[in-house]
Write a structure and sequence with these properties.
The protein has seven helices and 40 strands. It has a 22-stranded antiparallel beta barrel. The chain has a five-stranded mixed β-sheet with strand order 3-9-10-7-8. The chain has a three-stranded antiparallel β-sheet with strand order 4-5-6, with no helix packed on it.
Length: 684
């Protein structure tokens, strides 16, 4: 029985790579299952021992199926879906729960890239798959390790490590939606080692993505049409991820700069003025930067003890629309700056018997600077709302403890994390029992997570102040069963129940926007998967089914009460690949069952004054769809080290819009058009 081993944090990115153990073939299923994952416990464990429901996507998978960006990858995993947050901001849903605003933590090489103000990530057009070597995902709570924003899911994108033996690569990409809607980019991934033991890696890229060529008719109360093609909703991103290792110290750098057109309303008027040179309904251009640097070092002592230390600085700039309209409440978000500084230290003890104890803690210092359109302070003092400040800070102290014990076929992981900030305090416990015997494995998991209020939600004049917020609480209970059918295939089944209580909810009162603790969401369901990997052929199939469980806030439910709004209850993914000499063919498809979407009448009632039209919670079914994709790969098409990949998504041009998963008065957003991509790769 493999033992859980201590994994120094200095080694995390290296062990996340898709490198080959001696004597194993590139598509060996045993290799995939035995490759260490670290996202679930900070320990080196295989997927079957990890005390979470874990999904792993490798570089081989990304290239094989032609996945273009992170959204393509997540869509193929059980439990994940996407929703529209009003202005073509595409957020994540997980197991029926709208995880967009602070319930899903996104990291690159362990550094948080979820924006500091509310955790919102735009998953479309933001993180190109060509820069990703591996993706590790916790489908469920992760606050016991990662704290804030890790409520319903944790996603870690792992790039090329400084010490990876793989060759470098350069990729040129062209994309098309047709009718003159083009995009593309270029990506460089390289690394090197030096005789003095130092090592460096560089992962840099630029991508321009057309969003859709279909017109958008929104909002319901104007009913005007907005053209999304010809660059009106184009998204551009420049990514820089790097690592330097020297003198026993590791330094990681993460930087992502986004620029995208914002659409709201499809019409103009007093609320959305016409902007010179832009189509009616365009608010303008959002320009944002997310960046961070981490310095970490480990110290080894006698008796199995080691000390892990790290310092981390995160910065977010921009994050809004310019020029501003009335919806900004006078806040010039283009001038907003946010930062977070983290100091963390943890003691790791490899016990004489097969067990590991981790105890640590640290300090987080958050800062937000915000001004209004007159460059005056846009942060209030809740004790005296007449006092406006240009800057606020928030300090959080935290500690965590985890004990992992392996006893024969059984494994135990128990622990938790406590955070105490100037605004609130919260505790996230976890307990995991695992069993691995021969081909069979099982997990029984319980976890809690929290979403703490942020500086932005508490102090910004963008919101009306309704009182101090308390942390949102997420709980999960899971049973996972797995079976290795043979050396090349594995099947898994996961049953779960999740709940969100004391929700930090968004509200509107007489055109005043506010946050308040209100309502709850409960979901239950199952996830099943089959994966087959051989040298020349293989594939995967998975399904996820989710339903509301018990009393759920009607804000997130279809009018029948038996389905979540905007999210397909049943999702099925199927993919296969076949190698024919230098050519590989890999078709895949997604089936998403019928969904409930808000009706126009309901949307109008939520916007118009009550004396004109009473508020009406009403939804109507949106038909289920099948999305067919195809990827063709031709290796050595121009000689050794060259590769051409042609991929097409939504070959049948199925009408599959993105819905708003709450009653927010926005029409279905046309998206997921048929797209063709051509990647030309040179390996060196």
């Amino acid at each position: 029985m493999p033992r859980a081993r201590l994994l120094p944090l200095l080694s995390l990115p290296l062990l996340g790579q898709d490198s080959l153990p001696p004597g194993q073939q590139p598509d060996d299923m045993a290799r995939l299952l035995n490759t260490p994952v670290i996202i679930a416990s900070r320990l080196q464990q295989n997927q079957e021992e990890a005390p979470s429901a874990v999904s792993v996507v490798t570089r081989t998978d990304i290239e094989r199926y032609g996945w273009r960006e992170l959204a393509d990858i997540l869509r193929t995993l059980p439990g994940f879906d996407f929703g529209n947050d009003g202005t073509a901001l595409i957020g994540l849903a997980e197991r029926g729960i709208w995880a967009h605003e602070g319930k899903a933590l996104l990291m690159v090489n362990g550094i948080q890239v979820s924006p500091l103000h509310n955790g919102n990530v735009n998953y479309y057009g933001s993180y190109p798959a060509e820069l990703i070597e591996r993706v590790e995902v916790i489908r469920g709570p992760g606050s016991a390790i990662y704290g804030q924003f890790a409520g319903a899911a944790v996603i870690n994108l792992i790039t090329r490590s400084a010490e990876d033996p793989e060759a470098g690569r350069f990729t040129l990409r062209g994309s098309s939606l047709g009718a003159g809607n083009f995009g593309g980019g270029g990506f460089l991934v390289t690394n090197g080692q030096f005789s003095n033991g130092a090592a460096i890696s560089l992962n840099v890229g630029y991508q321009s993505s057309p969003f859709s060529r279909q017109p958008y008719v929104d909002t319901f109360f104007t009913g005007r049409s907005f053209s999304q093609d010809q660059g009106n909703t184009r998204r551009e991103v420049t990514n820089l991820f790097g690592e330097v290792r020297a003198l026993g110290t590791s330094v990681h750098l993460v930087r992502a700069a986004f620029q995208e057109a914002q659409v709201d309303g499809g019409g103009s008027g007093n609320g959305n003025p016409v902007l010179p040179g832009l189509p009616p309904g365009t608010l303008g251009t959002a320009s944002r930067i997310v960046q961070g640097i981490r310095v970490q070092r480990s110290f080894a002592f006698d008796h199995g003890l080691s000390l892990e230390t790290r310092g981390e600085l995160l910065e977010n700039t921009g994050g809004s629309v310019f020029p501003q309209d009335h919806n900004s409440n006078g806040v010039n978000h283009s001038g907003t700056e946010r930062s977070r500084f983290i100091l963390d230290a943890s003691l790791h003890w490899n016990l004489p018997y097969p067990g590991v104890l981790i105890a640590g803690g640290g300090l987080i210092q958050d800062r937000e600077r915000s001004v209004d359109l007159q460059n005056q302070g846009a942060l209030r003092d809740p004790k005296d709302p007449t006092v406006l400040l240009p800057q606020q800070t928030l300090q959080t102290r935290y500690g965590y403890l985890q004990y992992t014990q392996q006893a024969g076929a059984f494994g135990l992981t128990a622990g938790g994390r406590y955070e105490d900030s100037d605004l609130s305090n919260a505790f996230a416990p976890r307990l995991g029992l695992t069993f691995v015997q021969g081909r069979f494995n099982a997990k029984l998991l319980y976890g809690e997570a929290f979403r703490s209020p942020t500086l932005f939600q508490t102090y910004s004049t963008f919101f009306a102040f309704k009182g101090y917020l308390r942390p949102e609480i997420i709980r999960s209970r899971e049973l996972e069963l797995g079976w290795r059918l043979n050396g090349s295939s594995v099947v898994r089944l996961n049953l779960y129940r999740m709940s969100v209580t004391r929700s930090i909810s968004f509200g509107l009162d007489n055109y005043n926007i506010y946050y308040v603790n209100a309502g709850s969401t409960h979901s239950k369901g199952l996830e099943a998967s089959l994966e087959v990997r051989n040298q020349t052929w293989g594939g995967f199939a998975n399904l996820s089914y989710t339903r509301p469980d018990g009393q759920v806030d009607p804000f997130f439910l279809g009018s029948g009460g038996n389905a979540f709004l905007g999210i397909s209850p049943l999702k099925v993914n199927v993919g296969a690949y076949l190698r024919l000499g230098p050519v590989q063919v890999a078709p895949s498809l997604l089936y998403a069952s019928a969904r409930e979407g808000q009706t126009a009448r309901s949307a109008q009632s939520g916007i118009a004054p009550d004396d004109l039209l009473p508020n009406l919670v009403e939804s109507a079914p949106q038909p289920g769809r099948v999305i067919v994709n195809l990827a063709l790969t031709w290796k050595e098409w121009l000689g050794v080290g060259t590769e051409a990949r042609l991929s097409a998504s939504n070959l049948g041009a199925a009408n599959y819009p993105i819905l708003q998963p709450y009653y927010g008065a926005h029409a279905p957003l046309p998206a997921n058009d048929r797209m063709v991509n051509l990647d030309l790769v040179w390996r060196f």
